[in-house]
C-alpha cells in the first residue's frame, strides 16, 4: 500500500447526502458522516464527522456546515 498503516480489508462507511469531489480517495477503514463534503483530490484516511467540509491529504476538517 502507498499509505502506511492502512489495512486494505477494512470496511468504509459513508453517510447519507455526502458529496465526494472528483478524484477524492476514501481509504479502507475511513468513515464520512452524513451531510459532509469531501473536496476534490482529497484523501480520507480516518473519520470525518457529520456536517462538515473536509479537504487535503490526509483530509482535515476545513469548516462545519449549516
Q: Could you characterize the architecture of this molecule?
A:
The chain is mainly beta and 66 residues long. Helix content is 0%, strand content 35%. It has strands at 13-14, 19-20, 25-26, 31-32, 37-38, 43-44, 47-48, 52-55, 60-64. The strands form three sheets. The protein has a four-stranded mixed sheet with strand order 2-5-8-9, with no helix packed on it. A three-stranded parallel sheet has the order 1-4-7, with no helix packed on it. A two-stranded parallel ribbon has the order 3-6. The N and C termini lie far apart (36 Å). The model has no long low-confidence stretch (mean pLDDT 93).
Task: Please render the helix and strand layout as text.
Elements: E1 13-14, E2 19-20, E3 25-26, E4 31-32, E5 37-38, E6 43-44, E7 47-48, E8 52-55, E9 60-64
The stretches of 5 or more residues where confidence is low (pLDDT under 50) are none
Q: What is the count of helical runs? A: 0
Largest β sheet strand count, sense and barrel closure: 4 strands, mixed
Shape: globular
Strand order of the largest sheet: 2-5-8-9
Q: How helical, in percent, are the residues?
A: under 10%
Number of strands: 9
The oligomerization state is single chain
Mean pLDDT: 93
- Radius of gyration, rounded? 11 Å
Determine the strand fraction and express it as a percent band.
25-35%
* Helix/strand class: mainly beta
Distance between the termini: 36 Å
Order of helices and strands: EEEEEEEEE
